[in-house]
């Protein structure tokens, strides 16, 4: 069996305070939680290890017992002992006997609980149970474990009833396309192992928007309600448009003749194609505003920003000899007219 260094798992010193342990746990749990790392088995296993380490180090009694064992383990290794030769069962039997004697002296009774109950009390391992090391050190293995309640189980009321505790909120980053941001969309999200939900993304969401899904966060303990899931929106870059607040910016190529003589060009807005009138002698780089064709304002279905169209001159290519001569004549006429 492998010895687990819970201090190393959380990245804290052996004399870490309760506040330091909580801070380290929260940071690592947010990073490796299965809900923010769907289909990532390594992250899931890492989260289980982090959770197990926290359950031990945050509980003064379990931490003291773990430190005592760690001291014995260090002495065993220093003396040249090999992990495979260590008598784990002797430790487990001795530990169980000490628990029973302590219970009898204090008047408490040891209750046999199922693995599911045990995981509900102490956070579990995300569906995989605690490690063999944990169960050997703190009592029990297999489907049932003996555990010294010490008169009251942490997280429970007298009589074995769960103390209601609201589940934590979870934040998950979700990437969507610009079209999905403009029109809204639905996504099927997989949370943890096998849990799927349908998330509705409203039209008009912006970069950094947080979409709240009530009750889809961490489950609550006992009768308490679950936390919420917040989807932090990230909009993927789009080759057609740039977002600027409620407005959209785009570039439209226009041939040289239309810029000089004027005319109409087709512009593709997000929802439709529109006609843009170009006045004669329009300078290259001029921007035109098309009202109400930009980003919809979230929660205001009838209001949208504007679409700004910047015209870019498209020069003629592969001119014929006659076309070149015409351009020379035009240049000469323009130069003479300017004198």
Could you walk me through the main structural features you see in this protein, from its secondary elements to its overall organization?
With 339 residues, the protein is α+β, with helices and mostly antiparallel strands. It has 3 domains: 6-162, Helix Hairpins (Orthogonal Bundle); 170-235, Sandwich (HSP40/DNAj peptide-binding domain); 242-337, HSP40/DNAj peptide-binding domain, CATH 2.60.260. Helices cover 35% and strands 26% of the residues. It has 10 helices and 17 strands. It has helices at residues 6-10, 18-32, 41-57, 60-78, 88-106, 115-122, 132-138, 178-183, 256-261, 321-337; strands spanning 111-114, 144-147, 156-157, 161-162, 170-176, 185-191, 195-201, 210-213, 229-235, 242-244, 247-255, 263-268, 273-278, 287-290, 296-297, 300-304, 307-314. The strands form 7 sheets. It has a 4-stranded mixed sheet. Strand 6 and strand 7 (195-201) form a beta hairpin.
Summarize the structure.
With 339 residues, the protein is an alpha+beta fold. The protein has 10 helices and 17 strands.
Architecture (CATH level 2) name of the largest domain: Orthogonal Bundle
The residue-averaged pLDDT reads 76
Q: Got a strand count?
A: 17
Q: Uncertain runs with pLDDT below 50, 5 residues or more?
A: 102-128, 140-160
Shape: elongated
Beginning-to-end CA distance, first to last residue? 97 Å
**What is the SS-derived class?**
alpha+beta
CATH topology of the largest domain: Helix Hairpins
Radius of gyration: 34 Å
Number of helices: 10
How many structural domains does the protein architecture include?
3
Report the helical percentage.
25-40%
* Biggest beta sheet attributes: 4 strands, mixed
User: What pattern of helices and strands is seen along the backbone?
Assistant: HHHHHEHHEEEEHEEEEEEHEEEEEEH
| CATH superfamily placement of the largest domain | DnaJ domain
